[in-house]
Amino acid sequence: MKPHVAVLPSPGLGHVIPLLELAKVLVVHHGVQVSFLNITTEASVAQNQLLHPHTLPPGLRVIDLPPADISTLVSEETLVLTRLCINAEESLKPLKSVLMELGKLQALVIDLFCTQAFEICNELSIPTYTFFTPSISFLAFSLYLPTLDRDVDCEFIDLPAPVQVPGCTPVRTDDLLDQVRNRKIDEYRWYLLHVNRLPMAAGIFLNSWEDLEPVSFKAIREHPFYQKIPRPPVHPIGPLIKRDAATTESDVECLAWLDEQPSNSVLFVGLGSGGTLTAAQLTELAWGLEMSRQKFIVVARKPSDASASATFFNVGGDVNDPKSYLPEGFLERTKGVGLVVPSWGPQELVLRHPSTGAFLSHCGWNSTLESITHGIPMVAWPLYAEQRMNATMLVEEVGVAVKPVVEPGKGVVAREEIERVVRMVLEGEEGKVMRRRARELKVKAEKTLNFGGSSYESLSRVTKEWKAQHL
Ligand code: UDP
C-alpha cells in the first residue's frame, strides 16, 4: 500500500493550480496516493474544469468539501483576501470529519490560508505541511512581518526607507503588497493571522529554487534572524507549473494560429486569474499593441475601474464580447496580426509554443514560473497581491523583464510606452539579453526537477519520511 496524503488548497485558481501540481507530482513521481480536498464554495468555472477527473492521474482523487453559505458574511465590497479567508474558514468547518473518513493519513499539505487545519490535525495526530505558493523572497518577508508589526508604529508605506527584510534585498514601500498598505483593514489582520501561524507547520514547501532566488534562499537558510524565530524546515520543490492540454475549440484555434507565426515573434498578454484593467488603461494597451506592429495574443477581460482583480472569483465565467470594450475597429485592423481570446486562454500551452517570444504578465507567481520554465522574457505589469515585489525582482535581480513607466500624473501607462516596451522585448537588444537569461533559467529549472536535482531530492526526502512512517 502506498502512503496516503491529503492536499488542501485555499480558494482561488492561483492557489488551486500549484497545489494540484504538487498532488500530481506526488502521485506520478513519488509513489504517494493523494486525496485532493476541493473547496467548492464560490468555485469558478475554470476551477471546475481544471479538477475534472478525466484529466487527473490514477491515484489522485478529488474530494469536494460541502459548499458553505457565506452570503451573510461577505458583500460586494469585501476585499479579495478577506473573502478568500472567510470562504476557507467556513468551508473547513467539516474538515475533521472529512479527514477521519479518509482513514490513516501520513500528512496533510495545506495552503497558507487554511491554517485552521493545524488544530484539527493536531487532534488527529496528522503532521501538517504548508505549501507556500509564492516566492522565497515573499516567504522571507512574511516570516518577518510579525516582527515588523511589533516594532513599527506607523503605516509601513510611510516608513522613510525601504523595508530591510533580514538578509534580503530591501523592499521599497511602493512595492509593498496591498494587504499590508493599511494596517487597519481586515485583509491585513487575516494575512498576519495566517503568517503568524506558519511556524505550526511540520515543514514549508516552496515553489521556487536556489538558482532563481539565491539571496533570499541563503537568508532563510543562514541568516541569524531566521535561525532565531520559530521556523519549520523549508523545502524548495519548484518550479512546479501546470501543463495545459488543448481542450476547447478556442485553444485549438489559438495553437493553429501560433503554428503559422515565425519563432519568438508573438507577445502573449495575460493578467492571471483575476486581473483586469481600467477602461482608460485597456484603451492605451490596445493602441500600444497596435502601434507596436508586433504579433500578439490577448486574453481579454471587461475593464473594471473599481478593482484590479475583478474576475478573481469568477474566472472563466465572465463570457464577454471584446468588441464591446476594445477601441472601435481594433479587431478589424489587427486581424491576422493578433488574436483576442475572451476571459481565459491556454496560457501554459501558449508559453510553451516556439512562436511565443514574450509575455506581458501581471507577475503572479505561477505565471512568472511558467514564463521562466519556458525561457520567455516578460513585460512586467503588476496589478495586485505581492505582484509589485515580484515585478521588481524580475527586472532588477533576475534580469528577465522590463517594466513600463506609468505616465506621471495620469496613473496609466501610455500607448507610446507600451509600443516601446513591446518592441524592446520582442526585437530589441535588451530583449535578447533577457531571453538568454530566461533560457539559462529554463535549463536550470529542468535540472532541479529531474531525478538527482535539488527540488526533486527535497521532495523525495519528505516523501521518504512519509513512507517510513507508513511501514
Ligand atoms: N491562467 C490560464 N489562463 C488564463 C489566465 C491564467 O491558464 O487566461 C493560469 C496561469 O497559467 C497560471 C494561473 O492561471 O497558472 C494564474 O496564477 P498566477 O499565480 O500567475 O496569478 P493569480 O491568478 O493568482 O493572480
From TrEMBL:
In terms of SUPFAM superfamilies, this protein maps to: UDP-Glycosyltransferase/glycogen phosphorylase
Q: Which family does it belong to?
A: Belongs to the UDP-glycosyltransferase family.
Q: Which UniProt keywords apply?
A: Glycosyltransferase, Transferase
**Could you tell me what this protein is called?**
Glycosyltransferase
UniProt xrefs under CDD domains: GT1_Gtf-like (cd03784)
Report the EC number(s), separated by commas if there are several: 2.4.1.-
Which InterPro entries does this UniProt record tie to the protein? UDP_glucos_trans, UDP_glycos_trans_CS
Pfam families in alphabetical order: UDPGT
Instruction: Output the Gene Ontology terms for molecular function.
Output: UDP-glycosyltransferase activity
